[in-house]
Amino acid sequence: MTELDEIVQSFMRPPYPYDPYPLYAQLRDAAPLYRAGDGFWYASSYEAATAVFRSPHFGQGSGPDSRIRRDPRFDDSSALQTLAYMLPFIDPPDHTRLRQLISRAFTPRAVERMRMFLAGHVDALLDSMAANGGGDVMSELADHIPVAVICEMLGAPGDRHRDLVGWADALVAAVHPTVSDEHLAHADDGASAFRAYVDTLIEQRRREPRDDLLTALVQAEADGDSLDGLELTSTVCVFIGAGIENTKHYIGACIAWLLRDREQLERLQHDPSLQASAFEEVLRLEPPVQVAVPRLVLEDTELLGSTLRKGEHVCPLVGAANRDPRAYAEPDVFDVSRVGPPNLSLASGAHYCTGAGLARLEASVTAGRFLERFPNARLVKDPPVRDDIRPSLRGYASLTVDLGDS
Ligand code: HEM
């Protein structure tokens, strides 16, 4: 095994380091596009990762050759069959068609309508934290927000939050091509329960339309076209699956980074107009999605002096690309007023995160209100990072704070 393979292994396989960023930097400096011993290409520079996100030569493939469908377990796997109809796993032109239909329902106006709901929900949670003088931001605040918001938006009853999170978590495990049989079986159970539940909601909306996102999706039409049954179910599942975990980690990271750095927090307190750039800076430094969905190389492609062969896999390493010194001056420094190119935390190109506006709204209202209300809050200890979602995702297991005399 080469030295670079050892570096890749050390952040892709357990035991994971608390801080993977110095390892990413070593790989990026030595080989911004590297074919590792595990057979995957890793795009770790800003230029390489952007090219992988944006080039039509990398995707999921189509028909029976698509990355998800060519898994030999596809015919028996409810999880893989659900994934096959989700936006991240479809290439243009099918992807373009599906995304256009979804954008008829998931509009900026529908997102903005969540602001008041969010503020009320956040304030109630902050009241309980205040009554206790502190607590765990993850379990007492961040965990509750994204699931409540997406359910409110869809019009899904609040009593199944825990089930939805569990099913979505199970399903996410099937995304990686090397998923074990055991994890896939667990994902299949989650996907079957998820689909049965979502199908019931969809049937209700067909019978009794309401003023919610689910009804808008059922009714979405463009050029006489609409979403078919599996597309609808998979779309609702992807909103829940993609929208909850990442956003909760983003909220936690915004609070942690500002509480850890009093100087930057004071800059924000003196000039609240910096809030959007401050939270964007956290998104750059601590991306909830560290390793994006693997892409298939659809045809032999030259990139940064290497030839990627048709059929190979390539992964954009978002956590590495966002700290590339060729894109950002002093990339490891937290600067709430940083100006720079767009970070890659919400991807780039055709698969740019559909929920970007909602994620930013949730972070701005939740972390924004927390920091305003508790200006003297302090971190009690360095927050532990969850290992069970690595290497693809990154988020805190807990974030214990003392609210001081706030
Ligand atoms: C901070 C929170 C979030 C982060 C970091 C995030 C990150 C991402 C990334 C990196 C991708 C591209 C995946 C790839 O192609 O490799 C993506 C796609 C997507 N995200 Fe998000 N996301 C967040 C929140 C949300 C929310 C709140 C929703 C919806 C409710 C959402 C829905 C989606 C969907 C549907 C896609 C697929 C888009 C496509 O393939 O065309 N995400 N997200």
From TrEMBL:
Keywords: Heme, Iron, Metal-binding, Monooxygenase, Oxidoreductase
Gene3D superfamilies linked: Cytochrome P450 (1.10.630.10)
Gene Ontology MF terms: heme binding; iron ion binding; monooxygenase activity; oxidoreductase activity, acting on paired donors, with incorporation or reduction of molecular oxygen
UniProt xrefs under CDD domains: CYP164-like (cd20625)
Signal peptide: none
Keyword Translocase in record: no
InterPro entries tied to this protein: Cyt_P450, Cyt_P450_B, Cyt_P450_sf
Protein family according to the UniProt entry: Belongs to the cytochrome P450 family.
Protein's name in the database: Unannotated protein
Lineage of the organism: unclassified sequences, metagenomes, ecological metagenomes
